[in-house]
Amino acid sequence: MKRGSVLSTLVLLMTLLLIAGCGGGTSSQPPVDGSPAAQEPATSKEIVVAVGVDATSMDPAMSTNITDKHVATAIFDTLLIRDNDMTVQPNVAVRWEAVDPLTWEFELRPGITFTNGEPLNAEAVKFTIDRILDPDFNAPSFAQFTAIERVDVIDELTVHIVTSEPYPVLPAVMAELWIVPPGYVQEVGKEAFGQQPIGSGPFKLVDWVRDEHIILEANPDYWNGAPNLSRVTFKPVPEQGARITMLQAGDAHIVAGIPPYMVAQLESHPDIRIATAPGARSYFVGINTLADSPLKDPKVRQALNYAVDVETIIDTTLEGYGQRLASLLTPRQVGFDPDLEAYPYDPDRARQLLAEAGYPDGFTVRFEAPNGRYPMDREVAQTIAGQLEQIGLDVDLQVMEWGTYVNQFREKPEEEMAPLYFLGWSIPTFDADAILFALARPGQTYSRYHNPEVADLLLEARYEIDAERRVQLYHEALAIMREDAPFIWLYQMDDIYGIRADVDWEPRSDERIYLDKADIR
Amino acid sequence: MRLVVSRLLDTIPVLLGVLVIAFVLVRLTGDPTLLMLPPDATPEQIEAFRQRMGFDRPLAVQFLDFVLQVLRGDLGDSLRFHQPVSRLIIERLPATLELAAGGVIFAVVVGVPLGVWAAVSRNRILNALVSGFAYLGQATPPFWLGLVMMLYFAAILQWLPSGGRGTFAQLIMPVVTVGMFLVAMIARLTRAGMLETMRRDYIRTARAKGLAERAVIYRHALKNALIPVVTVTGVQFGALLGGAVVTETIFAWPGVGRLLIQAIYNRDFPLVQGVLLVVAAGFVLVNMLVDLTYRLLDPRIRLD
Fold first, then answer.
1. Residues contacting A241, CB < 8 A, separation 6+
2. Cβ–Cβ below 8 Å for B233 and A142
3. Chain B residues within 8 A of A250 when measuring between CB atoms
């Protein structure tokens, strides 16, 4: 350290670190964003989807977050599929029927192969389901499959799925069953399969660099027609503002979860269009009807429903991007009752009901809500708290991080659970069973309501194979619940997407991004 | 050498403390069962899941298991990613090092000359400008600076990519975002140090010897003025090893900070513990290097 300046040594050291950093991490992939698309030949059609989170696993049986499901949708095929109205349609299976109340027969489309050449046959379907049912496998979707007792291979293209009880939701569950290649999965093992998946779907995985990108390329031999797009990139960008900037800069083509207040600004951009789909999530305030409190009285709970001005919340906080719900179900769910009437906003009636119940001066109530879990969750909770105070309640609103919030449902005994709690509930099966069974029957994690009549109806509906009769049972249950008012029913939101104007793609109610028919001009 | 060894031994209780804190804190808010299972899972399924994952065992047993595992050099598997924690961290370390080193280089290259300039210049306006800039730089929140730069340079002018990692262009905005705070801090410290040193007798002697002003400033004065700068730079570099969470989030930079935040949100116990341990070790190591650098700058400083 005679004459050389310390400064230059320091800079040299840092530069070395920097070079080491660059050398270690930069993959040999061509940059997929930022730089002009000129590197690719003119015929290539590629789009970038900016998503909030990276995938956790590409093994579809292990998928937990929405990006996992986007990727599974691109790489794999489901046994059945939902159309844009969320009705279950044939896909890999061309035909299905309940041959008896416990046995479902599926006939598979001939000639489908995985991209490694393995045939997609009855054996593959059996393998895929057996894998999820294996308790040691720890599949997050395990709960939906527990009704399945076994899978029988009848011949190359016919399987029987046998359930332990009648299970009318089975076809809906099969629209979530991404079929995996048995030979490849057994060869590479669970962990490697989650990193290097092989499926039969419209796209193939090219490269996954964590938190950087997931690059997929078209499967030209896809049985349902080669995709128009040659390449699809999912880019995890956690910050919403950054995703929107990417859309504006043309670095991303599809961005989900546009907040309502950003719509006007994006619509004024010449290269961006806004598209919406009615969301699958039902938002409500749960009421703890089991603890010893004024909320035990149905009159009080009805009062709460009269006190909340849902239409105004939709018009102001959600800027109109939502629809009022009269029950826990959204219109596209099996069991939905279009004739059920939502509680109107009537604060006078609310005050009157409170007085009749013996609380003319109101009471103090704790209201818990998550922060950042759902769009505008904190704002909506604050508005509801304010409206409840209008009828004389003293609301102690507590807003908390999702992980902390959700853990209370398991950890706290019923009487300590929040008297009022805000939740948004989405069910991939689009069937009343999952949401009503979990929320309106005693002993379930998130349920704080018990009416024996409703509980029996829900149990009966769960096992009713006759579709019409089943819907009827749900209508009966919903009507009783309306009077019991164990929830403050709120709304469903529209899912708002920002899309580059040259991209031909429309959003769906199940939040999935199917890209096999998408195109870019 | 003995010094290095004894310093390394000193770090053991620190790291043990980190282990305990990481282990306890992340568990205080509950386990990830409900976050990982679908909402309609029954209470029985939830209990079965907790048993399989070992969350139902006493905390002390879980902790002992964890410590033994770490001693074997195994950080465990991530609950969410179903992969070894060590691999997940190693995948992201290059990006974090790149951003931290880039930010520090940017800060030193801009901040030190700025500070010297402000100290030796007799122009009061210039002096005030540099000081003003320094305060502004320290007061600007990184998320604001990052978003404004992104809006301007990526969305409006479209000169720079809005995020991601791989090219030099993608490095610019994140580096400026993490570095700006440090530029301001270094400029202020350098200026203060220079003003202090320039009054010393040995500087007068150097000038009296007839040395050129440049040589006086850069060879004699700056070296002594730099000691606090090195301290701060070292500490900040160490802190950046934990990931510049905000910057990484805004610019979709795949670094350790984002990994840690996700791990916390997911209650991914092994991943939180692993990241904290590695980051703490890095921080301790950098601080040790800073201590050793003092001796190079000023041999009068003894460390033993």
1. B147, B150, B250
2. no
3. 158
- Residue in A443, A448, A442 with CA at minimum distance from that of residue A423: A448
Token pair recorded at residue A179? 């079929």
How far is A349 from A360, CA to CA, in rounded Å? 12
Q: Using N-to-C axis directions, what is the helix angle for A452-462 and A467-484, rounded to 10°?
A: 160
pLDDT tens sequence across B53-89? 888 888 889 888 888 888 888 888 888 888 899 999 9
Helix A298-307 to helix A377-390 angle, to the nearest 10 degrees? 110
8 A C-beta contact, residue A365 and residue A311: no
State the best of A445, A459, A462 to mutate against chain B, taking most chain B CBs within 10 Å: A445
Token pair for A76: 């794999």
Beta-carbon separation of B94 and A56 below 8 A: no
Residues 439-478 of A with CB under 8 A from B: 443-446
Rounded Cα distance between A463 and B30, Å, is 35
Tokens of B227: 């000691």
pLDDT in tens, B181-240: 889 889 888 888 888 888 888 888 888 887 777 777 877 788 778 888 888 888 888 888
The ipTM, to two decimals, is 0.74
Å between B39 CA and nearest CA of chain A: 8
Chain B residues near residue A408 by CB distance under 8 angstroms: 30
In a mutagenesis test of the A interface, which of B26, B33, B37, B40 is the best target, namely the one with the most A β-carbons within 10 Å? B40
Residue owning tokens 């730079």: B233
Per the CB < 8 Å rule, is A248 touching B155?
A: yes
Q: Tell me if residue B286 falls in helix, strand or coil.
A: helix
Could you give the CA distance from residue A133 to residue A127 in angstroms, rounded to a whole number? Answer: 10
Within 8 A of A192 by CB-CB distance, chain B residues are none
Give the three-state DSSP class for A113: strand
Quick one: CA dihedral A31, A35, A39, A44, positive or negative? positive
Q: Residue B150 corresponds to which tokens in the numbers above?
A: 């992104």
